[in-house]
Amino acid sequence: MRARKRFGQHFLEPAWVAKLVAAIDPRPDESFLEIGPGRGALTAALAPRVARFVAVEIDRDLAAALQGRVPTAVRVVEGDFLETDLTALLAGESGPVRVAGNLPYNVATPILVRLLEAAGGGRTLADATVMLQKEVAERVVARPGSPDYGPLAVAVALEEIEGFFDRARLGIGERRGLQRTFPPPGINNYAG
User: What is the pLDDT of residues 144-169, one digit of tens each?
Assistant: First the structure.
């Protein structure tokens, strides 16, 4: 299946998935929400290791194909994460849900803002491990006085205080080469 530019799609390569799963360190009693699972590389690696897994995919063709490739316990939701009712989506969860995803470059900032609004100080969402465009990642971890410091950094800092983000763990992780996604985005990727 080809990446659709209108959705900002770039698919994770298998070699990178193992590193992400190790960084996420999933536990058998946890629930996960994946944003933009694409072809399901991260889904297939994470879902068997956790109790519950929901994947939200905007591309109807990818969502349909994913449903046939993942364990039956994975709930695939076709839709735009930014328009999804998170309260309904996460209803029935007994504790905070962990978030993972290779965020589409064209909507990464609105998705991060939505996650921050939904975090509830760690009561709704426990944490988030996402791949971001370098420029977005730099804005997320920016410190006061730096050129990248702005509303996104302030929002992240407030949630850090409430427990959603841990800057010590967040940071800009290891620089990811462009060969980690397909098609190559022409920009640098970071995970944190």
Answer: 999 989 988 888 777 765 555 544 34
DSSP assignment of the chain equals -PPPGGGT--EEPHHHHHHHHHHH---TT-EEEEE--TTSHHHHHHGGGSSEEEEEES-HHHHHHHHHHS-TTEEEEES-GGGS-HHHHTTT-SSPEEEEEE--GGGHHHHHHHHHHH-GGGTSEEEEEEEEEHHHHHHHSPPTTSTT-SHHHHHHHHHHHHTS--HHHHS--SPBPGGGEES--SS-EEE-
Residue 72's φ and ψ, nearest 5 degrees, are: -60, -20
Bridge partners of 79, per DSSP, are: none
How many angstroms separate the CA atoms of 50 and 27, rounded? 6
The tens digit of pLDDT for each residue in 27-66 reads: 999 999 999 998 888 999 999 999 999 999 998 988 998 9
Task: Please tell me the pTM assigned to this model.
Answer: 0.79
Going by C-beta distance under 8 Å and a sequence separation of 6 or more, which residues neighbour residue 16?
176, 180, 181
> Which amino acid, residue 145?
G
